[in-house]
Every structure is written in C-alpha cells, then in structure tokens.
Design a protein that fits this description.
about 375 residues, alpha+beta, Rossmann fold, six-stranded mixed beta sheet, 8 helices, 20 strands, about 20% helix
Length: about 375
Amino acid sequence: MQDIPPRLEIRNLKRRFGNRMVVDDVSLTIMPGQVTCLLGPSGCGKSTTLRMIAGVDMQDSGEIYVDGKLICDTVFRIPPERRQIGLMFQDFALFPHLSVADNVAFGLTGADKVTKRARVEELLEKVGLLWAIDDFPYVLSGGEQQRVALARALAPRPRIMLMDEPFSGLDNRLRDEIRDQTLALLKEEDTAVMLVTHEPEEALRMADEIALMRNGKIVQQGAPYNIYNAPVDREAMGFFSDINIICGTSHGALTETPFGQFLTPGVADGADVEIVIRPQHLHLDFDRGGLQPSPSISHGSAARGTVRRARFMGTESLVELEMEHDGTVLKSTVPNVFLPKEGTPFWVTIRRDRCFVFPAKDKTA
C-alpha cells in the first residue's frame, strides 16, 4: 500500500521582521484527522507561522505542502482562497448584516441554492443551532456565535483547519464544551488541524501532538504525554505547571542534596545542576518515620521545612514551605482541603522518579 502523504507539511519556514527572526527554521507535518497544537508564549512565532500557512503572510524561505503538493515557496505561491484551508479566530468574524444561514454559506462558492441550504442545515444541526438558521448573529451568545463560526469554516470541507486562539474569548465552562464539540466535528470531517494557543491545558486537552515553540523555534515536539513527562529542559517543564528547583553541584557524576544523592552522568565535575520537580510530587508529613506512602516509590531523604502560606485552590491545596537547609521556598499541592498554619513544621520528601536533572542556567545569560 502506498504511504499517505501528510495533509500539511511545512519545511524550514523562516520569517524575519526587521532585525528580528520571528520564525526560525520551523518544520512539522500533520496527517488527516490529526490535531497539532502550536504551543508557546506570546511573541514566540506561533501566529506568524499560521499566517504563512494560510497565505496571508509570505515566508522568507521554506516550503509548504498540502497532500504532498507544493502550495508555496519563495517563488511559487497558490493564493489563499485556493488552498482549501479553513480559518477560525478568537473574534469569530461573523458578518452582522447576514443571517446565520448566509454566514455559514458564505464560503460555498459554485454550489446551487439547494446544495448550499442542505450543507448549511447539516452543519447547524451538528452544532445544535438549526433553530437559529434565519436569525442574525447579534441575537446569539458568544458560545453560539463561535459555533456558527465553526460551521462556516467547515462548510467548504477544507482539508486543513487553522485555529488561532479560537476559544480564548469564552468563559471556562463554556470553553470546554465548545472545544470538545469542535474537536469531535473536525475529527468527523477528517480535517487536519493546527491549533495555535498559549494555554498548556488547552493543548493537552485537544492535541494529538504538541509542538512547543520558543523564540521562533520548535524546541520539543511529540504526544502530550511525552511532552509533559519528558520535558526537554527546565523551561519546557515550567511551561506546563509550577515547578520546584533544587540546586546542587555535580561531583563524580553525583549531586548531593538535602533529599539525597542524584545521579548526574555526563555532567562535568564542579558543574551546577538543577533538580526540578512539580508540586504534586512533594510529600509532607509531621513524623519523619511516616514518609513512605508507597514502598514501591522512592522518596529519598527527608528535609525539614516550615509553612509560609497555605491556600485552598478548589480541588487541592497549595502549601508553600521555607526549607531549613537554605531558606528556599518549595511548593506542594495536597488533594482536598489542607491548610496548616504559618510556621507549622513538616518533613518533606520528593518523588525521585518524578525529578528531572538539567544543567543550571547561566546567571549571566
């Protein structure tokens, strides 16, 4: 059987604005029905990459392919309207003077009225808005308008859907509902999706694959589980959650800490390292002898800390502790309500299997 080419492939895209390289040698592929999230902080080059794929901006170098066919390089360029690429944005961009039906049918060029109406009704039924087919956008809520925008983007059956922060204008509970419905519809249509977002939770919830961007480059790419559980560096780990950093110095491929020794192979003698762990992997106990909640999990040595602050966060509590050995503050999350008073002493251990060791950042950089 012949291999199916990627629905979307971008190769070595670069884009410079003045002296600043905004997109720096970005390459990725997306298969039919796959959702890839381009994730990163504001200004890292995500939206510029999307705009080049859409054809509303031109790369300085690199190539873009759809189903194995070149659609754009620095010489050849298929115009945006002929790329069979749909677009969804945060502001919905519905036409206020057109009915819901006419908004959805806007991109259905070349079809007769009966065919257009059938496609409009099909999509509006899928998003639960058939009742509003003859209404105008202004009578709809924000979530309903976003559903209309989704139906309009899907109407021409695009092979690729580009989505730039499309859910950020919705409240949290509605956002989850719209995201799940959107994802189901896109999968049903076998559309390749590139979702641009700066929210890790959204990427983890929606993506089959995450491409993590920083300073114009993709620094890590893979399945959400792998990106979260095998971060490439401290910044990648910290982008998805709060982190605790325990500093040390490597000697003989070992780093001594108040929580025990850590293997640091390949690190030069005398080099500083950072042992990084998430708050949920710290364990607190009043009694030093009760610190092994599971015999199969190594928590290493215990270190002493006192509570600086404790806050209830809804499903868990966040406890900040000042460590006696060096005064650093570590954060621990505890399920349910756990609000010890300021100054309460605890013994602290850490899940050694959940620690990551990275070279220390150059403080002069």
